[in-house]
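Office hours follow-up: a student asked to see two folded examples consecutively, so here they are.
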Amino acid sequence: MALLNQPISRRAMLGLGSLAGVATLAGCSSNEAGSGSAASGDTTYKIGVLQLTEHTALDAANTGFVEALDDSGISYTIDQQNAQNDQSACQTIAQTLVNDGCDLILAIATPAAQAVAGATTDIPIVGTAITDFAASGLVEDNDAPGGNLTGTSDMNPVTDQIDLLTQLVPDAQTVGLLYCTAESNSDIQIEMAKKELDRVGIGYQEFTVSSSNEIQQVVESMVGRVDAVYTPTDNTIAAGMTTVAMVANPAGLPIICGEVGMVENGGLASVSINYTELGRRAGEMAVQILTEGANPAEMPIGTMTADECDLVYNQETADEVGVDVSSLADQGGEDVSASA
C-alpha cells in the first residue's frame, strides 16, 4: 500500500484570511499597492486573478499565491475576480483582465486557465489547481510549456487514494465514480481511477452530473448500487460536497475524496494535495517571471509528490457511515471534522 507511513505535519490554515491585507481592486489599472515592499525598485506590478469558483481548495490556492507575493517583498496591485463556476463569466473576466493591461494573470482551475489562455498570448499566465496542463491543451508539454503559460499542477495521487479506499472499505465490490462531465480535469482523474480499480480487482460504475443542480438526484441513484464512492478534485462536486454527504452518509456510503476540503465538508478520507502550498509555489513562479524575467515557455509545470500530500479523515463522517479510521490516526493522519 502506498499510503504515507510517517507522521504528517498539520496542514497550513486554509481560507482567505491573508487576503485581508491585500487590496482587492476593481481593475488591474489601480495604483493601490499590495502589502509587499518595493523590493524591485519603484515598480508596482499589476496582477489579475481569475478563480473559477469558491470552494476550500481553490480559496486555499489563492491564499498561498498571495502569501508568496507578500513574502517576496514586491509592490503590486491585485484584482481578484471569481467566475462562480460560469464559463461565460470566465471568458468575460479574462478579457477584462487582459484589456486592463495586467503584467501577469493567475488562473485558478482549468476552465479559468483555458479562458485566460484564449484571451492573450502575450501577458504571462500562471495557472494553479489544474490537473494536467498538456492534456487540457494549455501547454505544448508539461516539461516545456512553449508559450506564455505555466504553473502548478494538482495531479492527484490517485494510486494512494484508491489504496486508501481498499484499506477503509476492504469488502467493497463496486465503487461509484462521481464527477462532472464538463470538467476535463475530472476525466483525466477518473481514467486513472479506473485503471487503479482494475489493478485491485474492484468493479465500478460512473455517475456523472453536468451541473450542481443534478448532484442530489445522481447521488441518490447511487444508494444500493455501490459500496463506496470515489470523487476526484472536481470543482462542481467540491462546491456541492455538503449535498453529496447529505445523501451518501446517512445511506452508509463512504466517500474517498480528491482533496481535504471535500473531507471537511462530509467526505470520509483523502490523501490530499496541500492547496495552500500549491498556490504558494505558483506565486513563487509569478515572482520569478515578474522580477527575474523568467520565461513561462521554459518553466516546467510544478507538481507535488505523494510524500508531500496530507493524509486526512473525518471522524464524524466515519462514525456516521460505520467505518473504522483508527489506522489513519496511527499513520499520522489528521482528523479534519468540525469537532477535531
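And the second, which I mentioned at the end of office hours:
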Amino acid sequence: MLDRMTDLELMIRFLLQAFILLGACKIVGWIGVKFLGQTQVVMEMVTGVLLGPSLFGWLAPQIQNELFPKTIQYVIDGQVTTAKHPSMFILYVVAQIGLVFYMFLVGLEFDMKLISDRIGGAVSVSLAGIVAPFILGGIIAATVMQGHNDFFGPNITLPNQVLYLGAAMCITAFPMLARIIYERGISGTALGTLSLGAGAVDDAVAWSLLAVVLASSKGDPNIAILAIGGGTLFAILVLTVGKRLMARFSESVEATGKVSNALFTAVLLSVVAGAYITDAIGIYAVFGAFLTGAAMPRGKFAEIIREKLEFFTVGFFLPFFFVYSGLNTQLGLINSAYLWEIALLVLAAAIVGKGVACTLAARFSGEPWADSWAIGTLMNSRGLMELIILNIALQQKIITPTLFSIMVIMAIVTTLMASPIFALIYPKTQAFRLARKNG
C-alpha cells in the first residue's frame, strides 16, 4: 500500500515492463516464425495473452502482478482507496500512440484502385464477408447471449449488441493480408488484387458500423449526431480538400528524393491532428489517423514516410498494444461449460461466416477453387484489427471482460490459421509462377 508513486519509480517500472514485453515478443516471435510458419505480428498477439493473467498470472501470480499491476492502494485522509495503477495508464498511452501511427500506415497503403481493378469479384467476396458473419454474429447476440449479463454492458441495447457483435465478426486483418500477399509475391495477381480489395471494403464497413455503435451507445442523440455527422464531414474534408493540400508534400520529395525534417514534422502533426479531431467528436482516434494516411500522396513520398515510421511503430509500439490487450484477456472468466460453448460457437460462426462464405463467393465469381480457398483463408484472419475493435468496445464498456476474452480467442485462432493453411493451399512456388505469369 503506497501513499504515492514517484515519477522515478514509474519510469523504472516502465523500462522494466518494456524490456520484458519486447524481449518476450521477440523470443515467441522467433519460435513462431521458425517452427510454426507464423509471422512476427501474429506471434506478438499470442505473447500478449501469455504475459497476461491467463498464463503468466496463473503460473506466477505474484511476479506477474509485480511487473504488470492493475491496481494500487492509496491512503487518503486515513482511508484506503483502490485505483487503477498509474503504470497501466502509461502502457495504455504508449499502446494508443502506437495504434494511431500504425493505422496511419494502414491508411497510407490503402488504395481504391485495388477495388476498381477487380470490382466484380471484390464486391462479391466483400459482400459475402460482411453479410454472412454479420448475420451470424447478430443471431448469436440476439439469441444465445440474451438473458445473460456476461457479455454486454448494462446500458447497451439489443440493437447495439447485435450491431456490435456483427461488426466485430466482419473484421479482416487487412495489414496482415497485405503482408502475406507481398511475401508470397502475388501483389499484382488476380488473387492478390481481389483479396486486398475485398479486405479493404470489409474493414471500411466494419469500422463504419463500429462508429455507429460508439455514437449511439452514448445515449444522447446530440452526441450521436456529432459523432456520425462530424465523422462523415471530417472524412469528406480530409479526402477532398485535405488530400489536395497534402499533395504538396510530395513535390519536394519527387525532386530531391528526400523528406526534410520540417516535412516529416508536418506529416506527424497531420496524423496527430486527425486523431485528435475524431477522438474529440466521439468516434476514436484511429479513424482520424487512418483517413489522414489514406489522403496522403503516394509514390516516393509514401515509401519514405513508411520507411521512417514502420520499423519503430511495429517494432516498439505495437508490442505494448498486444500486451495491454493480453492483460485484459482473462481466460479464467470463461469458467463454465456454457461460456465455453459460446466461445466455440463464436469461433465456428467466424470461420463459416467469413472463410467459407468468402470462398464460395470467390468461386461463384469465376475464380479457380485453389484461389477461392486461398482468398477465404486470408479473409478469415482477424489479426490486430480485431484486437483494436475489441479494446475500443471494452474501454467504452460496450462489452464485458468475459466477451472480450471470448473474442480474443476467436481473433487469435483465426489469425493463427491463416499463414499455414494459405501455404498449404497455395504453395510458394505456385505463387511465384503465377506472379511471373501475370507480370
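Two things to take away from it. The CA atoms of residues 115 and 197 lie 4 Å apart. The mean pLDDT is 82.
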